[in-house]
Amino acid sequence: MRKFLWSVLLLAAGCAVAPREEAPPALPPAAPPSTPGEPWTVVGSRLEVRVYRDGTMQKLGHNHVITSDALSGEIRMREPLTASGFELRLPLETLVVDDDAARSAAGAEFAAQVPQKDRDGTRLNMLGERLLDAARHPEMRLAAESLSGEPGAYEARVRVSLAGGEHIVTAPFTVTIEGDRLDARSTFSLTHGDVGLLPFSAALGALKVRDEFEVDLTLEARRGS
Question: Within a domain: residue 27?
């Protein structure tokens, strides 16, 4: 029984199982922009994903904060800003599960202590073949399909390449440009299905992962390649 519960906890903490066969076909290539755009290079980043336990047996699991500071890539700036584009990459090996500072900042729902063995087990399961399959697909890639809106209310359609699948998600964002520095911020919610994942469920749904999760992403970029 103890071995069964430990296996269930690891699977629940991993958050989802990625179906490999449901990736949509690539969209037709967009018409090339009239100008190549000015390159801005990402020099700093912070990705935070907050996932939540659910079900009547949820006390057997934990809420988790997944973080990384290793997003890199390039932004191609054009006028107007909505004509710009970006391509970003995140090595999945850089993902950290339940960093103490991140949990503390995430609020009361993440106040409970998570033993190190549970963090290690969660990360191993998350990167494994049944989930992100990092051995075969070591990066998450984000590419702009289109940008729209106006200052204070921009929106991006982003192609997310993850675990062998590709999906389009929509995210609001803000941008501040001062001289040669650009700061961008996006805070939004997704469901597992939005990125081709299925929330884990066990014991007839008594122990599961909440379908919706939260994402915070900040970027700092500097003018030039």
Answer: no
